[in-house]
Amino acid sequence: MATTTHAAVDLGASSGRVVLGRVGPDTLEFHEAARFPNGVVPLPDGLHWNIVGLYEHALDGLATASREAGGELASVGIDAWAVDYGLLAETPTGPMRMLGIPYHYRDGRTAAGVDSVHSKVSFAELYQRNGLQFLPFNTLYQLAAEELAGQADRLLLIPDLLGYWLTGEQRTEATNASTTGLLDVHTRLWDTGLMSQLGIDEQLFAPVASPGSTLGLTRTELSARLGGQQLPVTLVGSHDTASAVVGAPLSSPDAAYISCGTWGLVGLELQEPVVTDASREANFTNEGGVDGRTRFLTNVMGTWLLSETLRSWEAQEGRAQDLTSLLEAAAEVPARDITVFDVQDERFVPPGDMPARISELCGERDLPSPEGKPQLVRSIIESIAVRFAQALNTAADLAGRPIDVVHMVGGGSLNALLCQATADRSGYPVVAGPVEATAIGNLLIQARTAGTLSGSLEDLRELITRTHTPTTYRPRI
Ligand code: LRH
Which fold has domain 4-240? Predict the structure, then answer.
């Protein structure tokens, strides 16, 4: 049976990778051709991303992938975290030039933007129009706090910016566009009326394009680096969570998912958005999925709390922490030493000293502050699991659909303690894996666009089920 080879550029908040995959009707094989670090870059004016460094790493990774594929790379797809963007200005010679350095969504400057947007359009009205949960860093709030906005001719979301630098073509891929707050939740087209209410020039945005369409060929100037080839760049679910949901092998119509990395995205795949007062009050979002589906979910603080905690200990002690042995010790912590606290507290959003912030929160709430590293690690994991369980039940209530199984994908699926705690606290079986769901979702949409695969998302997921073995965690209580 014919197979094709594709490269997925998958940029997460703490690392990026280029995954080389061979895909066919009975084949789904992949490996990492390159992996590189990513993270918050604190500069004097705020928190940023090293976007040019990421582009360079992605290009190097594509060069490796192209070499490994022996010049047979059929296409490239790019996904990354949502909401953030680069601003561009016209130049006399043609190609647009980036203005400033893209901000990290954890930068605190957006608070002023939230007030400014809500003074023009209430959150209740926004929700009716864009269907998005309130996150202070949604693109529309960032834009309202953006000093360079007046000088910009174009705003490109992170994967679209990389796509532009690779191909010279500008589009806004639809799943990620849905996280800006400026897309109509029903038509999935730019809401130009909302833009004018907010004083945003609609020309700032490139046309919306669906996953599965072609962006263009890599620029000829890049061919020497890419094995002499101009590679086709295919638009995939460029919001990483959209690709992760494609790559979640949902095994029943009543399945829920948790895409767990830095964030835990907890929810359901629906055919239509749910834009009710109750869903707004529960802060559930209706992000755009591949094939016009709706990702009805809510953001839960994910492994960020754990990774920032490890980073604090590393900084204090001047040495690396061993996560594996910490998790082993955490597994032995007795129930009486576990403190369940509210992981959604806003003070946990910016980078910083999480152990101190957790103690502060526990002090304010009259909760025992976890003493010792294993106790703190276990308390973080159990607290995340409690929130996951609440979010699952709320999703089921709001969508009027029962849940019979939860698929945990992404890095969190390797955390056995978290998977088991989620099963125990929710009462649902948790089917963990694949860890690389995002890259898989990216590869599958490329292969379908190339004609190697066909059918619905269910057909694509069936290939994952046939080729990968998950680990099941059954509720123990
Ligand atoms: C996960 C993610 C999530 C967004 C956040 C900004 O990487 O894309 O879906 O809410 O980052």
Answer: Nucleotidyltransferase; domain 5 (3.30.420)
